[in-house]
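Example 3.2
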Amino acid sequence: MSNKQILMPALSPTMEEGTLSKWLVKIGDKINSGDLLAEIETDKATMEIEAIEEGFISKLIVEEGTEGVKINTPIAEINENESSIKSNENLNDKKVINIISNNQKIIDKSSLNEKSDELLPINNDNNSKKITVREALRDAIAEEMRIDNDVFIMGEEVAEYEGAYKVTQGLLEEFGDKRVIDTPITEHGFTGIGVGAAFGNLKPIVEFMTFNFSMQAIDQIINSAAKTLYMSGGQMGCPIVFRGPNGAASRVAAQHSQCFASWYAHVPGLKVVAPWSSEDAKGLLKSSIRDPNPVVFLENEVMYGQSFECPNSDKFILPIGKAKVEKIGTDITIVAFSIMVGKALEAAIELEKDGISAEVINLRTLRPLDLTTIINSVKKTNRLITCEEGFGYSGIGSEISSLIQENAFDWLDAPILRVYGKDVPMPYAENLEKLALPQTSDIIEQAKQICP
């Protein structure tokens, strides 16, 4: 009996490629129709694929962690006869298949992590490694749960499924179902439970599958978590973290694509954090968990699979309220947060070709805002652009513009300009979505308007 190929499935109407995150079977395993074979990460979520035929796994063609696997690409083979199975030697030596290119070729594993990314922050510390933002978040949660038994995490699919985006992978196995808690689909309800637990001196981490769903729980976040310390005269705090993906993902339309940065940054009593890199994610999440105040931790779904250098140490933390200068420049300051930091760095590289030296500031925290770092940069460059993925009206850029004009007006040589998303609900169509979201080219265009 010849082998039958298992192909990379299309898990959504718009899927063109995906990442084979994890094999759930091994060579020689007997499978039946409906058995789970692998975890596939798409542009929208991580999902498990099922077998549609019976047989024995005879070959695993694509290795775990391979990105850019096109749909209908063979990823494994099955055979009806167990005796005909041959070992898959390619997965046991240093050779793996590179699926990203149209023409498959064999590459050396040892070279996979050597390619540098000029947009990533450089870290020459021998105790750092390149990990995804997803892994950095998971490490931060696990490390804090190990040292503090009061820390626990709750949300939809965080336990048995290990998170909709696999941020909580491995936590249920390590900490058990008393500290990694699956909840019903009722944000208002489980957020209220989390806030109540924080009032009782526990340290909950509440995961929203997307911050769009946090609107169901906004009364608990604003009226209960944010205001109780003040209303109790300082007698009752609320050490809680609300975390999850914020802003646009990829073709998930208006109800799943909104940025809530300015919503939550508007509220006294909340701290609002918006990481970009793996270093940001790990260091700031650990600080947020330790903070005695409620923290809204705004992640970005598109960033989960991107890799950056990140310190290994479980003692590594970053202070809330402190920005980072990602690139030094002299002609213009570009301020950004979350996914827009990467676009700002891309713009800065392009501007260098035209003789414009841009300084890029990664805000990291939106409330409290590190105004000092922005002002010091503006005093040097005399020009400022703010970047955000959300709507411009009453946005983060509007607040920064006002603060800089109030505190550093004499150093400005040009109007402050803003880059932001179009003032429309997010379209579903890919071409329209791209037009609605701010791009690197928008930053470049704005910079050239005010730079001589």
